[in-house]
Amino acid sequence: MLNFTLRRLMFTIPTLLLISFIIFLILDLAPNDPTGNLPLTIPPEVREKIRASLGLDAPMYIRYLLWCQQFFINEPLNLFNEWFGWCIGDCEGRLRVTSWATRSPVVDLIAERMPQTLWVVGMSYLVGILIAVPIGVISAYKQYSWFDQAGTFISMIGFSVPTFFTGVLLIVIFSVWMPNDSFFWLPSIYDTTLEVVDWSSFGQQVRQMIMPVMVLGLYNAAQISRFMRASMLDNLSQDYVRTARAKGLKEKTVLLVHVLRNSMIPVVTVIALGIPQIFGGAIITEQIFKVNGLGQLLIIGIQGADIPLVQTLTFLFAVLIVLFNLVADVLYGLLDPRIRYE
Amino acid sequence: MNFKHLIAATLGAGLMASTAIAGGHAAQGRDGNVSIIYWQAASILNPYLSGGTKDIDAASLVIEPLARYDENGSMVPMIAAEIPTVANGGVSEDLTAITWTLKEGLLWSDGTDVTANDVVFTANYCMDESGGCQQLAKFADIESVEALDDLTVRITFTKPKPFPYGPLVGSTTPVLQAAQFANCTGEAAPTCTEENFNPIGTGPFVVTEFRANDTITMAANTNYREAGKPAFATLTFKGGGDAASAARSVLETGEFDYAWNLQIAPEILADMEAKGMGTVVSGFGPLVERLMINLTDPSPDLGEARSTVANPHPFMSDIAVRQALSMAIDRPLLVEVGYGKAGNVTCNVLPSPAIYNSPNNAGCEVQDIAGANALLDEAGWVRGADGIRAKDGVRLSILYQTSTNAVRQDFQALIKQWWAEIGVETELKNIDAAVFFGGDQSSPDTFQKLFADVEMYANTFDGTDPEAYMGNWACSEIPSPDNAWLGGNMPRFCDPAYDALVAEMSGTADIEERARLAIAMNDMLMQTYTIIPLVHRGNVSARANTLEGVKLNVWDSQLWNVADWSRAE
Amino acid sequence: MNSAVEEIEDTRKFRSLWGDVWVQFRSHKGAMLGMVVFGIILFGVTLGPYIWTTDPQYLDIRAKNTSTILNCFLTGDQIFQCFSDPGSIKYFDPNAETLTRVKLSWAYPLGTDQLGRDQLAQLLQGGRVSMAVGMAAMLLSLVVGTVAGVLAGYFRRLDGPLMRLTDLFLALPLLPLLLVIIMLFRDTLRGLFGPETGIFLLIVFVIGITSWMQTARIVRGDVLALKEREFILAANSIGTPAKRVISRHIMPNILSPIMVSATLGIATAIITESALSFLGLGFPSDFPTWGRLLFDGTTYISQSPARVIWPGLAISLTVLSVNFIGDGLRDALDPRIRGR
Asked: What is the ipTM of this complex?
């Protein structure tokens, strides 16, 4: 297994380089333009100069190599400098990956947004899994019971009603209709500058998280619980379950040790594939509640054709995807000893 | 009244306004926090590096120009002591130089003196070729900017400037502190993150924390020149979301005090306002939603020559068709559906300021389907079996494009129906705004290429002078492959008589004569139905009922007078 | 129970695999209900526009913001008058302090939107597109995902390249990719197939190729586990060709994740389509689809909740019915359950 992991890790480097090039190619081909959102009062000649100052007049491969240099060499060196105080080369004048819209280092922007994304999107994912796994297990164990039917109904609604609708619905109910001084009133706008220092600010943080976490959590739970249920159903009818019961094992042991473990394989894939998406942020939900996390950063970058920002964010995203797919593969091996990779 | 007198008059108004404001003597910061929401988040506080309205408005809280426009479009001195005119000797008789005198004793927020050097530095900062300055157009035709003494700056132009108030007037071109930005000129400009996020200014607020594309927190500037202002100790500038939710946060939930640019359906806005927590405010600048007719053939079969003057349009080159298209439109209904109080019917592409508004094109307010049909019949366009008119095998089938925006898609649907009633077939197409307005050479969907028969968007101009705006429709401004599709003449309109008017205007200083020329140009465009104006659009914002002192300004930053804002008792 | 036994008796004469499957499927109540609902929706969207002939794109601007006729149920004692002559009901409001006129008309049973377009006609017409896009895109992504997953899981040589391809597609930034695809192909397809069919093909393609990755990963995981099971080893050891092993032994055992993917895939496709048209990348703006109706209606959620309820209900019912059909199919195809 270790051997397999190491080999796969080595293989990821050329994969990621290729992915980064393809992403760059797509961003370069895309027809949106960094001057597109500027007021029309800025004349075309000035727009040309702006493009030139962003380096857009250089050929595509040069811009890609420049990004590679900035991202793979300058950024790590800068990190060393900041964390350990080691200075390698020209620490002051080193060119970092810089966003075109904010003219600030992309990595700093990402770091600034990490907290709210992890709080909101990460929490919603956790909530989603915590709701989904028990629902999936019980639904399968009591197939076609009222619990199963209700679970199916709710999760299907949760999946087929998009977040742009549920988010607005919750805001209308809890922020608009609810009187402002009521206990159930919830803020419709997420305050990213809020620092949790005491119980009252913690309470505020919880209040502003409730709606976005619920909207996203419902969506995630719906999806995961369906896979959980289907996979449990497949395993419940297997021979080994009969054997285990025949041996006189307690029903709880049969269900939670034998069946659950074997049912987790497809679910682990779904969960592992979902984790990078936490870091990708939830574009629509972040937009509705103004959480302004990584998803909002990405969408602003895309709309403004901010290539360095989008390229860096997407690439980090790709790294996470590749890593978590590897994690999922390793987990398969652990969950099912029969799976061999050699 | 000639132009010089006009300048004198605006100067007088400005002075009176500024003295009247300095009345109260309450303490600075007495009203706590004010929160502002812009649904487009500010990404930088340096307008020279980002021309986006959101960035300019946010920056206007911190850094100020020599003079700003007030809500009536007249100039108010900010850093300058007064507005220079020919009458007071500030503008040279030959209109080639303007001399600004700064206020005495003015301090930057860090406590140092504001000097003429800062002004000179700022001009050179933008005019540096390698800096990618986005406001470069404001500094056109400048020969030199020099400090005559600590408080006097002279800007010399290469040619006579009838309107010399381009550079360093208005929130797009504020004065930067030379000491802070000394190492940020030229190619280093974009690398100065700290400076661009936290500029030192003379405005009522200073930045305490800047989170790009998210939230800016500010505190009152203790060195602000007027005692007792601003009334708020801190300011929150939140960004993100969409217009509807921004409106909701002010009008329905009361979480914010001021929301910017609420272009949403008027009935929804009215419903929200009825909740009684806030008020919708609107104001009118020169922004006009219009249809641009393509006078050239956009057929894909033409390859390179697509939408160029080499091939006239098969049916749009017939003025009867263009006129019929305009007559079929019910403009009052468009206003009602799309803009409500924030829109007016207009028959001109230049409806504002009032002296430039042509009186010669009235009549477009009334929809005239029968008249349009009669006109087309007369011109020989006959309805075929499918109800679509045709002549000599050419069908009146139109591809109508615009940017993606709920109101614009409603307009498209309405206009499509009206055109169907006069026997014109319409296919609708909407394009992502970043692509449509992006000007990417490789994209076929930009508004400059106009690979369609008709396109719709809104345009306006900075400040109060329409010379550059009207110059857009000169022959030389036609976008084509030869000039990399740069240029503002989307209809590909070309008339030597129009070019002559443009040339005449650039050499005319007298304000009434300029108005006459602008009106003549407007009328040429209107009466040839090259541009079909739809709605004169206003800016719409919302303020909480507890917020006082808001004066919506369409000529400058909406937050131009934030120093005068206060909390109602 | 009795009837099921009889049916099995009846079919014994021409007992085939698919006969068995059908019998089992019919005994699944949820699946039958799903079939009925799905059939009604399908009938409504295909034939509905011929019965309810109002043009969904016609703007009756004077009738804009008409409410649904169902509001008559709220009129209390006027309910019969309201249904017989909706135009006569000028005002009704529980608290009579604010007299608001609510427009009602039998001409627009589900009301109209802000431009006076008939909601019922839009719902029927929109369903056509949404169902077609949903089904076609789901099928495409299912086929691509299953093929990639099975090949990667079964043939070790293909595992690396195929899974790296999956990683690549998962990592691609969707929006710029769409912009590129649309820019490159929209005009060509529009020229070849006309604006509507061309865009339809493009959208199905775009949604299909950007949503197969999850299915592929899940299927591969299952195949990896199955491959080491005794019955597959047995099949291999007697020299069964890979093609037959996959079709006879692997496929039936990975049906349940595929069914779940299919159900979720339809919902995703319908919603993604609405996101595309919102971005101006989809159908022309006056071309109704369920996702678009829901999106437009969300803006008017406080003014006329009915506008979001109908398309929302339509999408949910479709997804729900497909889900139950999928459940029934899976049960019917599983020999272990079928035998019971």
From this structure: 0.83
